[in-house]
Amino acid sequence: MTTREVPAAPVAPVAPGTEPAAVQSVSWLRRVHARRWEILRWLSPLAVLLLWQAGSAWGLIDPEVLPAPQTIAEAGIELIGNGQLAEALRISGVRAAEGLLLGGIIGTTLGALVGFSKWADATVDPTMQMIRALPHLGLIPLFIVWFGIGELPKVLMVALGAAFPLYLNTSSAIRQVDPKLFETAAVLGFSPLQRLRTVVIPSAAPQVLVGLRQSLAISWLTLIVAEQINADSGVGYLINNARDFLRIDVIIFGLVVYALLGIITDALVRVLERRALRYRA
Amino acid sequence: MTTLYDAATEAPAVAEPPAAELRSVSKWYGGNRVLDDVTLRVQRGEIVALVGRSGSGKSTILRVLSGLAGDFRGQRTVQGAPAVAFQEPRLFPWRSVRDNVRYGLTRTKLSRAESLSRADQALAEVGLADKAQAWPLTLSGGQAQRVSLARALVAEPQLLLLDEPFGALDALTRLSMHRLLLNLWRQHNFGVLLVTHDVDEAIALADTIVVLEHGRVAHTLPIENPRQPHGLRDRHTDDYRAELLAQLGV
User: Fold this and answer.
1) Could you list the pLDDT tens digit for every one of the 281 residues in chain A?
2) Residues A271 and A180 in one domain
3) Where a domain ends, among A38, A67, A96?
């Protein structure tokens, strides 16, 4: 983000069509120079892609191990064309959304309770910390035994993973609400509900959104793992199925899809974050 | 109860009740008695300064008067809802300056348009009409404190409680804040209880200075010809300062 804020070099106000060629090239160079870090950031991944493509074309990279970027892109176009990707995305998206919603509600509610009340802190928090200490991905076999291999264990796995970042961030965000602002609201005659709306929620929001970003990342990660183990639909199924047919291009495309899902949803929360923090000069 | 109205027995002081009054107020924190039989009165249109060392109970009196500390013994009478301005401006950073001032109208049931115009008017009175849309974090310390004053005064209270409101400001800003406070006070005629540790500030602003010591009212010092403009200071002012400093044990 910061690299984009580099101002473009000032361009001399010359009437269009009248500037000499030398002036034109100098101003172009200046503009490139001003944005050199941004350009450089794009350059290295592009170079890796180009090397990869060239290595594949020259036969240096075995297509059975790592197909060319072009092949992967073609596999993607095929999956988009026959509608398989859209269907898989819909199913995986619903799983992630349901899990995140369930885990998010549990995490923020318990976090709020623990943040507000010492009593809840003493009773709820130790249990939450105990559960948190378990590696939740390791619970997959247990969840299969308990809930079978349908949608339920996958959604519950995502919920379990997503609950904790929101729980931890919400409870600490609420503990950090400035008591002086709370007192000020009381002096101004705010009811408890108004204090919640005008003091607690706005001051806790930025940190809760940090929790949401972490929960989102964990949701996708959990879903990827859960879909690897047992799935007959979704992006994970697409990948597993491709493994059986040795379609490495489809496997890699599926991974790219997961990555894009993570990046896009994270960017959406960052938009919310920026809005919640727009008052910070 | 007689039906006859006897004008002669009607004392003039009864005509207008004080803006705030504490009668024999005591308060404990844990085992410590922080206020010990405090009796204090602020009339409308009067400025009372409360001076004392740290821990003498100044802020506790203000908390009792503002209603923040409900657990005390004795009698508290306040006309209307008191307004408070603290040492820190305590603005809500996620609300614009104008919306912060509108928070002062929470108790009143005004339409949105009406509260907006009252807020803008209050901002104009503290000289910040052009900052209505600004975020609080973009303001200087003095500007933020003026917004805090506007928020306190927008509901036209009869009592303004000030908890060392100018203590964190630089000397020049403090002087212009004194002038602003006096202008607003002359215009709206509310009673002021000013908690301060600055003896000169107390002498410059107050009608009466109350010295607090270990939770008790140790001295009450009425100021003759209060609020002399700067430059007209005479021996008089120096006498008050000497007396107060002696009472504070400095």
Assistant:
1) 444 444 444 444 445 555 556 666 778 888 888 888 888 888 989 999 999 999 999 999 998 899 999 999 999 999 999 999 999 999 999 999 999 999 999 999 999 999 999 999 999 999 999 999 999 999 999 999 999 888 999 999 999 999 999 999 999 999 999 999 999 999 998 999 999 999 999 999 999 999 999 999 999 999 999 988 777 899 999 999 998 888 999 999 999 999 999 999 999 999 999 988 888 86
2) yes
3) A67
pTM above 0.95, yes or no: no
B104 and A188 within 8 Å at the Cβ level: the answer is: yes
Residue B51: beta bridge partners? B211
Helix (H, G, I), strand (E, B) or coil at B26: strand
Contact B69, B60 (CB under 8 A): yes
ipTM metric: 0.82
Which run of H or of E encompasses A201?
helix A201-229
pLDDT at A11: 47
Count of domains for chain A: 2
Same domain, A178 and A244: yes
**A39 within some domain:** yes
Domain range for A53: 2-67
Interface touch B81/A199, C-beta < 8 Å? no
Integer Cα distance of B58 and A272 in angstroms: 44
Which residue in the set A186, A198, A199 is minimally distant from B68, CB to CB?
Answer: A186
Query: Does A281 map to a domain?
Result: no
The chain B residue lying nearest A186, using CA atoms, is B68
Verify that A183 and A267 share a domain, yes or no.
yes
Helix-strand-coil split of chain B, %, nearest 5:
40, 25, 40
From A189, A276, A279, residue closest to B135, measured CB to CB: A279
Q: Which amino acid is at A106?
A: I
DSSP A96-158: HHHHHHHHHHHHHHHHHHHHH-HHHHHHHHHHHHHHHHS-GGGGHHHHHHHHTTSHHHHHHHH
- Report the alpha-carbon distance of residue B134 to residue A55 in Å, rounded: 57
- B21 vs B112: CA distance, rounded Å: 34
The domain segmentation of chain B, as residue ranges, is 18-82+158-250, 91-156
Rounded distance between C-alpha atoms, residue A137 and residue A222, angstroms: 7
For the domain bounded by B18-82+158-250, which CATH number is listed? 3.40.50.300
CA distances from A225 to A24, A34, A42, A86, A235 (A): 54, 43, 31, 20, 11
Element (H, E) at A12: none
Residue A184 with chain B: CB contacts under 8 Å = 84, 86, 90
Q: Which of residues 59-118 of B touch A (CB under 8 A)?
A: 66-68, 81, 84, 86, 88, 90, 92-95, 103-104, 106-107
